[in-house]
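[recover] target loaded
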């Protein structure tokens, strides 16, 4: 009997340990968790200044070569510095002038929006015709509650069945 209870206790302890082992590894720091990719910022590399007479930076001071994340994102999205033409090399400027890229029409976004709106409208009509191939008008009718109640009372007073007469409906415009 004692042997059976010791075995039962050992099995229960083993099961409890096995179930709790998942959180134990995390609690003890044995399970590795990666950094949050949205919180990681890249910093400018540490380099020796060319002039060795410069004083070292103050601890905790903002690095002069460090770019704010918002400015870095704007630079990445726009494809260069905020100035645009000032960031181009002489070769890029020559190539743009040869192909006529320096004189860009400022209304190109409006024209693209108009053209894509026309295409989107045609596609929407086609999709509507494919999806809603039946007549879109509702075949359901809405009963006029007051007029129906009045009709039922009149039928009951005259001894007629409730199904006799036309059911009044609300006409949609």
């Amino acid at each position: 009997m004692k042997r059976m209870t010791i075995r039962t206790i050992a099995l229960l302890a083993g099961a409890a340990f096995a179930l709790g082992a998942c959180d134990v590894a995390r609690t003890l720091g044995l399970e590795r968790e990666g950094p949050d990719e949205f919180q990681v910022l890249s910093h400018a590399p540490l380099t020796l200044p060319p002039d060795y007479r410069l004083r070292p930076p103050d601890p905790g001071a903002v690095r002069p070569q460090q770019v704010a994340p918002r400015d870095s994102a704007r630079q990445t999205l726009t494809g260069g510095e905020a100035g645009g033409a000032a960031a181009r090399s002489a070769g890029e400027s020559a190539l743009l002038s040869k192909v006529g890229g320096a004189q860009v029409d400022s209304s190109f976004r409006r024209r693209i929006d108009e053209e894509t709106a026309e295409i989107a409208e045609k596609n929407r009509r086609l999709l509507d015709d494919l999806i809603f191939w039946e007549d879109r008008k509702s075949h359901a009718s809405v009963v006029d509650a007051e007029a129906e109640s009045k009709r039922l009372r009149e039928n009951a007073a005259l001894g007629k069945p409730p199904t006799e007469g036309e059911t009044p409906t609300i006409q949609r415009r």
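[recover] notes: The longest strand covers residues 142-143.
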